[in-house]
Design goal:
elongated, 4 helices, 7% helix, 6-stranded mixed β-sheet, 18-stranded antiparallel barrel, mainly beta, 565 residues
Length: 565
C-alpha cells in the first residue's frame, strides 16, 4: 500500500502539469451577447472561424447571454454570432494570445435597430423645442463609449454592452415667444423620462401657459402628455400615448375655448432580418362649439433587400401620426378649422407613398412618389378679427399671439420627392431636398369669406437646404433651414412629409450654457425662429373690412431656458 501511494501521487502530478501546460499554451475567449438596449440574448450561436480552416470552435449563449470557448489555439480569428430575428454579426481580427482569457462582448441588431441608420423619411430629432426623444432607440441614436484594441483599432465593447439599469431623466423649461398659434404667453413645462431594467420606458410631459383669454380672470392653457413603450422580444415595440390639451384663449367667435384629447397606439415588429411592419391608430376628440370624434389609422412596410438599400411603403390618414416615430414629438402642432356650426373639420385624408433609399458611403439618397387627398388646406394668418367676423370666415383666432387659422378648399395631389443627406461629422448632417407636387395658389385679391373661389390647387415645386445635428465640442444642437416655394402658394408642397413649421428661413439652436459657481449644471438656452423674414405673405380682406395677412406659416420666435437633471 505504501508503494502504491507514491505512484498515484506521481501520476496526479504528471496529469496536472499536462493540464497546466495546456492552459498556458492555449487561449480562452468569452463574453456576453446583448442587443442594442443591453438585454442579454440567450441561444445565440457563437462561431470562432479562420479563413483557411473554417469553424474552429462553437458556443451557445446561456440565459444570461454569456458564452465561453476554452483551450483554443492562439492566433487571429473571425467571430460570428447568429440568432433568430437578429442580423448576423461578424467581428474581424479577433486576436487570441496564449495563456490569456480574451473578453469580447457582442451587440446584435434586429431589423428595427438596423433600419434607423438609413432614414427613408426625414428625421425630426431636435427640431421642435420640446422634442424629447425616447431613450430606447437604435444604436445610431445611443451615445456609445467604445473600448478599442490598441493594435487593430477594432472596437471590442461598448456602453450598449452593459446591463440596463433603471434610469430617469428630467427637464424643466421656461419659454416665451410670439407668433406661434396656440403657444403664446409664458410657459412652464416639466418632462420626465424613465427607463426600466427590462428596456421598457415611460414619459410624462406637463405644460402650463399664461395666456390672454379676454376675461377678467386669466385662465391657463394646459397640455398633459403621458406615454409608455414596451419592447417586443421579436424586435420592435408597442407604444401607448395619451394627451390632453386645453386652450381657453382660442376662439371662433363663440365661447368655451378649444380642447383636444388624443389616444395613440402603435405596434412595430420585425419579420426576420428583412421586413419591418409598423401600424397604429390615432383616436382624436376635438371640441370647439361642438365635438368631433375621429379614428385615423396608419401602416408602414419597410423592406431591406440589401445592406445599403431600404424600400418603404406608407399609408396614412393623418398628418399628425404616420409612424411610431411620430410619437417622439411630445408637443404636436395644433390644427383646428371650424365649420359654420363651430364643429372642428375632419382632417382625415389619405397619403400613400413608395420610397427607396440607398446609402453610398457617407451619403444617403432617397426618392419617393406619393398620392395625397387632403380634406382642406390649413392656412395660417396674422391679425385680429372681431367675433362676428370669425364666425363668418370659419376661422379660429389666438388673441395672445395675434394669429389665426382658416381652411382653404380640399384637393388631391400627386408628387415626387428627392433628397440627399450628407454626413459631415458623426453628429452633424447636411440635407438637400426637391419636391414636386400640389399647393393652394392665390390668384389675386382674396376675401376671407370666399377663400375657395380665390385659391386653386396648382402643380408647383419646392426646394430646401438644411443643416441638422450637434456640434460636439460646443454642445450645440442645431437646425438651420431655408425652404423655398413660390410666394403665391399658401400651403406646403408634399404636405404629409414637411414639418408644419418649415417655411423659408427657419432655425433652431439649443446651447449648453457655461456652468460655474453662478449657474447650475445642465442649463441650456433654446431659441427657435420660423419664417424669420416674413416671406410668402398674402393680404386678405376680413368680413369686418380689416386687411389681414395669410401665410404658409406666420413669422414666429420663441426662446427660453431649460434645466436638465
Amino acid at each position: 500500500m505504501k508503494r502504491v501511494l507514491p505512484g498515484l501521487l506521481l501520476l496526479i502530478m504528471v496529469a496536472g502539469s499536462g493540464q497546466l501546460f495546456a492552459l498556458q499554451t492555449s487561449a480562452i475567449i468569452s463574453g456576453t451577447v446583448r442587443d442594442v438596449r443591453g438585454t442579454p440574448q440567450m441561444g445565440a450561436l457563437i462561431e470562432l472561424m479562420r479563413a483557411e480552416d473554417g469553424t474552429i470552435a462553437t458556443a451557445v449563449s446561456d440565459d444570461h447571454g454569456r458564452y465561453i470557448m476554452a483551450t483554443v489555439t492562439p492566433g487571429r480569428y473571425q467571430l460570428r454570432a447568429t440568432a433568430a430575428f437578429f442580423i448576423p454579426l461578424l467581428r474581424n481580427d479577433v486576436r487570441l494570445r496564449a495563456g490569456v482569457q480574451s473578453i469580447v462582448n457582442l451587440t446584435m441588431n434586429n431589423l428595427f435597430d438596423a433600419d434607423n441608420w438609413l432614414p427613408a423619411q426625414r428625421r425630426r430629432a431636435d427640431e421642435p423645442v420640446d422634442d424629447w426623444k425616447w431613450t430606447l432607440r437604435s444604436a445610431a441614436n445611443r451615445p456609445l463609449l467604445r473600448l478599442v484594441d490598441p493594435e487593430s483599432g477594432a472596437p471590442i465593447s461598448s456602453s450598449a454592452d452593459q446591463p440596463h439599469r433603471v434610469s430617469s431623466q428630467g427637464r424643466i423649461m421656461l419659454t416665451s415667444g410670439d407668433g406661434v398659434f396656440g403657444d403664446g404667453g409664458l410657459h412652464q413645462a416639466f418632462v420626465l423620462d424613465r427607463t426600466m431594467e427590462d428596456g421598457d420606458g415611460a414619459v410624462l410631459r406637463a405644460d402650463v401657459g399664461d395666456v390672454q383669454t379676454g376675461g377678467d380672470t386669466p385662465q391657463p392653457s394646459i397640455a398633459l402628455i403621458t406615454g409608455y413603450e414596451r419592447r417586443s422580444p421579436l424586435g420592435g415595440s408597442t407604444r401607448l400615448v395619451s394627451s390632453f390639451q386645453s386652450h381657453p384663449e382660442l376662439t371662433d367667435g363663440g365661447s368655451g375655448g378649444f380642447q383636444v384629447l388624443r389616444l395613440a397606439s402603435t405596434q412595430q415588429f420585425a419579420l426576420g432580418d428583412m421586413f419591418l411592419i409598423d401600424a397604429g391608430t390615432l383616436m382624436e376628440a376635438e371640441h370647439l362649439e361642438e365635438t368631433r370624434l375621429e379614428a385615423e389609422p396608419f401602416i408602414r412596410f419597410t423592406a431591406r433587400p440589401g445592406n445599403d438599400v431600404v424600400v418603404e411603403y406608407r399609408y396614412a390618414s393623418s398628418r399628425e401620426l404616420q409612424s411610431s416615430d411620430g410619437l417622439d414629438q411630445l408637443k404636436p402642432a395644433l390644427f383646428v378649422v371650424p365649420d359654420a356650426n363651430g364643429k372642428p373639420l375632419s382632417d382625415r385624408g389619405m397619403h400613400q407613398q413608395l420610397s427607396v433609399s440607398r446609402k453610398l458611403g457617407s451619403r444617403v439618397i432617397s426618392a419617393s412618389a406619393y398620392i395625397d387627398r387632403l380634406p382642406y388646406g390649413a392656412i395660417g394668418g396674422s391679425g385680429l378679427m372681431s367675433a362676428s367676423s370669425l364666425q363668418l370666415a370659419n376661422a379660429v383666432a389666438d388673441p395672445t399671439t395675434g394669429t389665426f387659422q382658416v381652411g382653404g378648399p380640399g384637393y388631391a395631389a400627386r408628387g415626387l420627392s428627392v433628397s440627399l443627406m450628407q454626413t459631415l461629422t458623426p453628429a452633424l448632417s447636411a440635407w438637400v431636398e426637391y419636391d414636386l407636387g400640389t399647393a393652394l395658389r392665390s390668384g389675386g385679391d382674396l376675401v376671407m369669406t370666399n377663400l375657395a373661389a380665390g385659391l386653386t390647387p396648382q402643380t408647383t415645386a419646392a426646394a430646401s437646404v438644411a443643416l441638422r445635428g450637434r456640434i460636439v465640442r460646443t454642445g450645440t444642437s442645431l437646425k438651420a433651414e431655408y425652404r423655398w416655394q413660390p410666394a403665391n402658394t399658401l400651403t406646403q408642397v408634399n404636405a404629409y412629409n414637411v414639418m408644419p413649421e418649415e417655411a423659408y428661413v427657419t432655425f433652431y439652436v439649443r446651447q449648453r450654457l457655461w456652468s460655474g459657481s453662478m449657474l447650475p449644471q445642465g442649463l441650456d438656452a433654446v431659441v427657435e425662429a420660423t419664417n424669420l423674414l416674413e416671406q410668402g405673405y398674402q393680404p386678405v380682406l376680413a368680413p369686418d373690412g380689416q386687411t389681414l395677412i395669410l401665410a404658409q406659416v406666420p413669422r414666429a420666435i420663441q426662446g427660453g431656458l431649460s434645466f436638465n437633471f
